[in-house]
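The data layer described in this paper is built around a simple, fixed record for each protein. We quote a single record here, exactly as it is kept in our systems:
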Amino acid sequence: MAQITDSVRASFATTAQTVIRKLENHGMQGYYCPTSADAVELVRSWMSEGDSVTWGGSETFKETGMKAALESASCYTMLDRSRAATPDEKRQMWLDRNVADWFFMSANALTVNGELVNIDGNSDRLSLLLHGPEHVVVLCGMNKLVADVESGIKRIRTISCPLNASRLHTATPCEVNGVCASCHAPGCMCCNVVVTRHSRHEGRIRVVLIGEELGY
């Protein structure tokens, strides 16, 4: 990752404030943190001992150090879907995650008008964004910022999906060829396209913009 200069950081901070105002007009809360460490500190200040925590597939959640910080704190109930092995355990985990206090994710793209743009396959991540957990925290590097929804979808199909396909070994065209083919392959990661343009539950969704390049 290229070194972020002071002038770039200043520009990030200015742009973030514009996006934050848009988010607030859409029923979502926005915050800007210059670094991942700042973001971890901010988010933990919102949380209480004993809170239940779950997350979607997110490299940003790990790259920021958020996941490690919450696990090492040993005061939260961590609802990790990967630990559920049997069908009954998976069913119970899903029920528990739906009523979690905190759900963490990133966005595939965020428009300057304050819209979240996401594409998903199984859509576990998107279902919990849309309904269920009391609080949703969207951790978003400034590299995810785009001009509009169309640009967001283009970013996802040219950057996010090929990289995630390679990581997850989906055997889709975006892994095999590195280019989206709008496929209907068994491992398709583009089953659902969701644009979150407004939240009727004011304050439920908190978007933390971070002045770093994070995730895909």
Summary: The two ends are 13 Å apart (CA to CA). The chain has a mean pLDDT of 94. Helices lie at 6-25, 36-46, 59-63, 66-73, 87-98, 124-130, 149-168, 173-176.
